[in-house]
Specification:
Layout (H helix, E strand, L loop, with lengths): L3 H10 L12 E5 L4 H12 L3 E6 L2 H13 L4 E5 L5 H15 L4 E4 L15 H29 L2 E6 L12 H21 L4 E8 L5 H7 L3 H8 L10 H12 L10 E4 L6
Parallel strand pairs: 1-2, 1-4, 2-3, 4-5, 5-6, 6-7
Helix pairs in contact: 2-3, 2-9, 4-5, 5-6, 7-8
This protein binds 1,4-dihydronicotinamide adenine dinucleotide.
The site of 1,4-dihydronicotinamide adenine dinucleotide has 30 residues, from helix 2, helix 5 and helix 7.
């Protein structure tokens, strides 16, 4: 039987309302013009955070900011190519100028790879995957972390993939980039563990976004082929990844760092 004092201690450690962790805080989301990034940006805003949304697609990211504002949140939109250090720096400068700080970052911008066996992957395709999916994450963290240190801490989530924990046929460049994200995340988590910055990764399974449409060709057949990889029998929804991202950023995850959280309907089990 639990005593009252034990009960009180439990109440103090179990967060009852995650939104309290996000109110008056600032989140930065890359790849926010579409799919998982847009949905996560909206989720941060609904939880009470001000959100800076960045993407190489200017029109799309402005639309995301508008969606946030229409839902009653605060947003600023920036065109940013995550492979360019000066773009990343400028987007974060804009975040600080608009909202005065940085508490959370979801480094999500990424590109898929055409399905090809390794010897048919061109050097350009290799560079495109590594530059966006891996170098982009490095550049974002390189410029986000000093801002979080100024705030006394923060939380970062990097978008890896099921392809970051398992090899996939005809996906050598993409798999290499996403495995790289996991290594980068773990090393960065150790570098800043004592500075109250938690760095984690999320590894989504098959998620129903425009990236997945391009990957499958958008046909019923193509969609079914990837659904067949999912023990749960369906694609995931962007919201199901956004939930994991917000949880990793919340105080509920205060002891979680360097984790590559797989959210994949069982695809890699
Ligand atoms: P998406 O294609 O809908 O969104 C990706 C966004 O990243 C786009 O808005 C695009 O403009 C942006 N982007 C691409 N290159 C960029 C650059 N250089 N600078 C800034 N922005 C750039 O894709 P989705 O599905 O939302 O993917 C988001 C992340 O989740 C990616 O990192 C992807 O690899 C990862 N992921 C997605 C899965 C899925 O099944 N959809 C599965 C596993 C991982």
């Amino acid at each position: 039987m639990m005593t009252n004092s034990q009960n009180n201690e439990l109440e103090q450690t179990i967060p009852t309302n995650m939104s309290e962790d996000f109110r008056d805080k600032v989140a930065f989301v890359t790849g926010a013009a579409s799919g998982i990034g847009r949905t996560a940006a909206l989720a941060f805003a609904r939880a009470g955070a001000d959100v800076a949304v960045a993407d190489i697609m200017e029109e799309g990211v402005q639309e995301t900011a508008q969606m946030i504002e229409e839902a009653g949140g605060q947003a600023t939109a920036v065109r940013c190519d995550v492979t360019q250090a000066e773009d990343v720096q400028a987007a974060l400068d804009e975040t600080i100028q608009t909202f005065g700080g940085l508490d959370f970052a979801f480094n999500n911008a990424g590109v898929e790879q055409e399905r090809l066996p390794l010897t048919e992957i061109t050097e350009e395709e290799w560079d495109r995957s590594i530059d966006t999916n891996l170098r982009g994450m490095f550049l974002c963290m390189k410029h986000e972390i000093p801002l979080m240190l100024d705030e006394g801490g923060g939380a970062i989530v990097n978008a890896s993939s099921g392809a970051g924990v398992k090899g996939f046929k005809a996906q050598a460049a993409y798999s290499a980039s996403k495995h790289g994200v996991v290594g980068l995340t773990k090393a960065a988590a150790l570098d800043y563990a004592e500075s109250n910055i938690r760095v984690n990764a999320v590894c989504p399974g098959i998620i129903d976004t425009s990236m997945m449409d391009r990957f499958t060709g958008g046909t019923e057949e193509g969609r079914q082929e990837v659904i067949d990889q999912e023990p749960i029998g369906r694609m995931g929804k962007p919201e199901e990844i956004a939930n994991a991202v917000l949880w990793l950023c919340s105080d509920a995850a205060s002891f979680v760092l360097g984790e590559a959280m797989v959210v994949d309907g069982g695809q890699t089990v």
